Amino acid sequence: xxxxxxxLSATKISTFEQCPKYYDFQYNARAQRSFxxxxxxxxxxVHQSIAQLFQQVKSRHRSVIPxxxxxxxxxxxxxxxxxxxxxxxxxxNVKIIRPGQSLDQxxxxxxxxxxxxxxxxxxGLAEQKLLGxxxxxxxxxxxxxxxxxxxDLATGLGGNVYVHDWKxxxxxxxxxxxxxxxxxxxxxxxxxxxxxxxxxxxxxxxEIIETxxxxxxxxxxxxxxxxxxxGKIESLDEFIAKPSILCHWCPFGPQCSEGMAFMTEHEVxxxxxxLDLGVF
Length: 280
Hints:
Elements: E1 7-8, H1 10-18, H2 20-28, E2 36-37, H3 38-59, H4 75-91, E3 94-95, H5 103-125, E4 129-136, E5 140-142, E6 145-147, E7 150-157, E8 160-167, H6 174-190, E9 195-201, E10 209-212, H7 217-234, H8 257-265
Parallel strand pairs: 1-6, 2-3, 8-9
Antiparallel strand pairs: 4-7, 5-6, 7-8, 9-10
Helix pairs in contact: 1-2, 3-4, 3-5, 4-5
């Protein structure tokens, strides 16, 4: 029987739904990963660059976000992180899975995401109060479970709190549930009556922002969903693999017989729309 759950996160829920065996490797066995997919590292470059920008604002003792005059502010940061990533790729710790793709193409995605952030997001943050950068959600519980999570950025304006979450992958059905979890967590964390949660899909064309706010009764629905999910996880005697094309990106793949068998029969997809950057 798996251990009784005391903590949960939006990522943990999505991982279980995607593949129970991956969940078991990650959270129960705490198995060692064989590699890290390059897509994860590109997401990390974007998140680290944006976080460092606001850390620089904070270090200058500025509580209000100024207008950023340099549209290429991120280039030195990306160059440094790119050098570190190349070392990891050459050492085999980070893998490029998709055939025909180069590291330069992935670095181009990071630059494209940061360009979109600078052009479409950053101007709207000017004059907002800086409340938090990469902060923990705090001691927040749903259905008796402590909910963990990290907020990319929190800002304030006119008594309202805005929570911002950067995404380098495509829109997914799980996004709305994450928004609900974080929204009610932020209500508890900041103690404000008005919280707006925003997801930014930085690599999509057109409108990249999704805005969420929820009525109180939605929290009751969320609690019911989480209780049902926890009951399902805690009742399992065995975590069964759900092989899919995502097996190629699974860092526990070499330890999973079902995944290895699937990958032998199914090649890595080449078409970009088959897989978003936020796998697992």
